[in-house]
Design brief:
Blueprint (H helix, E strand, L loop, with lengths): L1 H28 L9 E16 L4 E7 L6 E9 L4 E7 L2 E8 L3 E14 L21 H16 L4 H12 L5 H7 L5 H14 L5 E7 L9 E7 L4 E4 L12 E6 L5 E4 L1 E16 H11 L14 H10 L2 H15 L7 H13 L1 H24 L4 H25 L13 H18 L1 H22 L2 H9 L3 H12 L7 H6 L1 H7 L1
Helix pairs in contact: 1-15, 2-3, 2-4, 3-5, 8-9, 8-13, 8-15, 9-10, 9-13, 10-11, 10-12, 11-12, 12-13
Length: 510
């Protein structure tokens, strides 16, 4: 007996831990929203390209577009132009769109539109990058100034991250004569990044220039320069003005390298204007769109991967264990008497169609009439199978009659009575009649009222939208329910109703 108890405890622990672990993985690793009302940001980015065409030469416009390989995924990408050919290519880790035309004249306008959201992914993609680079050529006073800057940088750094941060701080120090000499009077961000790259190359530390767009709605945008270096495992991003490590979460990587954002052949006065706006979308719907537009497929093996019609069925099915748990608590802990465990749950499912008040009325009418018929058939001394067949047929006729009269009276809710499980009603009538004969009418009425109460409570709980969403989205919760049911299977204590029953004994002893 002791070994059996230990076995049960181990089984319960395994089920509960497994259910909690799977649910936690879905929430914290996959990022699946906990509530149906949760929303995620959806960004719409427009890049307006304007230039003046020469009118004589063929036109070729090339512009970098986001590689979308870090934290964001594209839901829609459009290249809007008139009489231009469009091609997108990958070049050195970047994506570049090329608009081309044989002839064009005067002011020209092209649009690039991108709709994106945060990337959903169970695992971060493995990244690669260079860990060594050759030194850039430098001579004369610049060589001496660079060496003078590198000495304290090496002294005050411990790894690649601190080395780069210290180098950026030294270059941005307006009081450092060596930095002034290397900058040569040009204190622009691009020139500072160039000097930082020079210093890092002498130390054989690779560095790339990164151009980003800040995801802020309704504000003018220009690409913002950042620096990054690969430490052998991850890319480290640095602010070129402060040396602070780590790119903010609202930055979108647009392109990397020294090249300009746009180049125009056959035109002049090229200008790119960015505009952004933000909207929100239901998080679970957005997750589905992400699955469709990427190879992440983190919802593929969930119930959301089923056809839509099948999903509707499973949304009802996954709530049945919740209803069973309600009946289990009512029977084993409270002591409520019902017609079995599953009959109240099935009646509760029928209430989903008829609504609670109307369903109770219909159930009461049909059961009362069925009991009357069953009592009449008892006088005919029929066997059980023919008797049940007659009761079942009577229930069908009664349901049809109620539906017909409800339709004539304009009570469309009465049409849903046909969705009641006829076999369940028939068996309910049969079991109530047997209970009436064996235990009396009072006990039969008590069981019938208990069944209706349990079914009503189960229906109310099973109809909570938040609970339905949570169990459907995280079905591993059912493992936790099974563990709780197993634990209740060993409960041998008093029920709440028994405290009332044995109250007289307590008074007699006192």
């Amino acid at each position: 007996m002791r070994s059996l108890t230990l076995h049960l405890k181990v089984l319960i622990a395994i089920l509960v831990v497994l259910g909690i672990s799977i649910t936690a993985y879905q929430i914290f690793v996959l990022g699946i929203p906990v509530t149906e009302d949760a929303t995620d940001d959806l960004w719409n980015i427009d890049a307006k390209v304007e230039f003046v065409a020469n009118g004589k030469d063929p036109i070729k416009i090339q512009m970098f577009v986001p590689p979308l390989s870090r934290d964001y995924v594209s839901l829609n990408e459009s290249f809007i132009s008139n009489n231009y050919g469009v091609a997108v290519n990958r070049v050195d880790g970047n994506r570049k769109v090329t608009w081309s035309a044989r002839r064009a004249k005067g002011n020209q306008t092209l649009y690039y539109r991108l709709v994106l959201t945060k990337r959903y992914s169970a695992e971060k993609a493995k990244v690669k990058g260079p860990t060594f680079r050759d030194s850039m050529a430098v001579e004369g006073p610049e060589k001496i100034a660079a060496d003078a800057l590198l000495a304290p940088i090496r002294q005050h750094s411990a790894d690649v991250e601190t080395f780069i941060s210290e180098a950026i701080k030294r270059v941005n120090n307006a009081n450092d004569d060596n930095a002034k000499l290397l900058l040569a009077g040009d204190s622009s961000s691009a020139n500072k990044a160039k000097i930082v790259e020079l210093l890092l190359s002498i130390a054989h530390v690779p560095m790339e220039k990164v151009h980003t767009i800040r995801l802020v709605a309704d504000q003018p945008q220009t690409p913002e320069l950042w620096l990054r270096s690969f430490n052998g495992t991850d890319w480290l991003y640095f602010n070129p003005e402060t040396g602070e490590q780590g790119m903010p979460s609202d930055r979108l990587l647009w392109w990397t390298g020294d090249d300009n954002l746009i180049t125009v052949d056959g035109g002049k006065k090229a200008n790119v204007t960015f505009s952004l706006n933000n909207s929100e979308m239901n998080a679970i719907r957005l997750a589905k769109l992400t699955d469709e537009n990427t190879d992440a497929n983190f919802l593929e093996y969930s119930l959301y991967g089923l056809p839509l019609q099948t999903q509707q069925t499973f949304m009802i099915m996954v709530m049945i264990p919740i209803g069973v748990l309600v009946i289990l608590v009512l029977r084993n802990l409270i002591g409520l008497q019902t017609l079995g465990t599953f009959t109240p749950v099935l009646i509760a499912l029928a209430f989903r169609e008829t609504q609670l008040g109307f369903g109770i009325a219909l159930f009461t009418v049909i059961t009362a009439l069925g009991l009357s018929l069953r009592s009449y058939l008892e006088h005919l001394k029929l066997q059980m199978l023919p008797r049940l067949s007659v009761v079942l047929t009577f229930v069908v006729v009664l349901i049809a009659a109620i539906s017909l009269f409800s339709h004539k009276l304009g009570l469309e809710r009465g049409l849903s009575v046909a969705l009641f499980p006829m076999v369940i009603l028939t068996m309910t009538i049969e079991r109530l009649s047997i209970t009436w004969e064996e235990r009396g009418g009072g006990h039969a009425m008590k069981v019938a009222i208990g069944t209706l109460f349990a079914a009503s409570l189960a229906h109310l709980i099973m109809s909570v939208p938040e609970l339905t969403y949570f169990v459907f989205t995280f079905p591993a919760m059912l493992l936790i329910l099974v563990g709780f049911m197993l634990a209740m299977g060993r409960y041998r204590g008093y029920r709440l109703t028994e405290l009332v029953r044995f109250k007289a004994f307590v008074k007699a002893d006192s």
